């Protein structure tokens, strides 16, 4: 079975491969895998995630869908708006949130987009956690 996650998250042609439904499902799956009950931040007891995006047109609908999936899983989502990928990693650490996510396809063509997750502390997810998210989704990525 092909992996959904590549070297830097999930990427694909926006609104074809990477749809709002997939972003919603990824948000829900991510909170199930990464959403521990040990929140220690400023709002102790409330689980939080941070979502940022680049300037691609598709970023708005993908961020909204991803955030909705996280919210449905019981998380408060902080919208970081337009921000570079390292900024999301930094804020994930500084704000002590359970996870961060950035909607960006980096240097890939403008019609593409992607979703990259960060674990608590602002670190890239280990492959095993990405595999766990894929298992929650229970679908093949082609």
How would you characterize the overall build of this protein?
The chain has 142 residues and is an alpha/beta fold. Helices cover 35% and strands 23% of the residues. The protein has helices at 20-34, 59-72, 85-94, 127-137, and strands at 10-13, 48-53, 76-82, 99-103, 112-119, 123-124. Strands 1, 2, 3, 4, 5 and 6 form a 6-stranded mixed sheet that branches. Helix 1 crosses helix 2 (59-72) and helix 1 crosses helix 4 (127-137). The radius of gyration is 14 Å and the shape is globular.
Describe, in short, the structure shown.
The protein has 142 residues and is of the alpha/beta class. The chain has helices spanning 20-34, 59-72, 85-94, 127-137, and strands at residues 10-13, 48-53, 76-82, 99-103, 112-119, 123-124.
Question: What's the SSE pattern?
Answer: EHEHEHEEEH
What structural class is derived from the secondary structure elements?
alpha/beta
Residue runs with pLDDT of under 50 for 5 or more positions: 37-43
- Helix content bin: 25-40%
Overall 3D form = globular
CATH architecture: 3-Layer(aba) Sandwich
Oligomerization category of the chains in this entry = single chain
Put simply, the count of helices is 4
């Amino acid at each position: 079975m092909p992996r959904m996650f590549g070297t830097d998250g999930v990427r694909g042609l926006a609104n074809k491969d990477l749809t709002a439904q997939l972003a919603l499902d990824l948000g829900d799956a991510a909170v199930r895998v990464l959403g521990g009950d040990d929140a220690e931040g400023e709002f102790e007891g409330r689980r939080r995630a941070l979502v940022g995006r680049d300037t691609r047109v598709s970023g708005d609908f993908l961020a909204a869908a991803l955030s909705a999936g996280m919210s449905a899983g019981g998380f408060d989502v902080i919208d970081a708006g337009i921000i570079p990928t390292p900024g999301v990693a930094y804020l994930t650490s500084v704000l002590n949130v359970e996870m961060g996510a950035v909607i960006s396809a980096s240097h890939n063509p403008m019609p593409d987009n992607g979703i990259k997750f960060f674990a608590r502390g602002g670190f890239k997810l280990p492959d095993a956690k990405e595999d766990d998210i894929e298992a929650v989704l229970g679908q093949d990525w082609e």
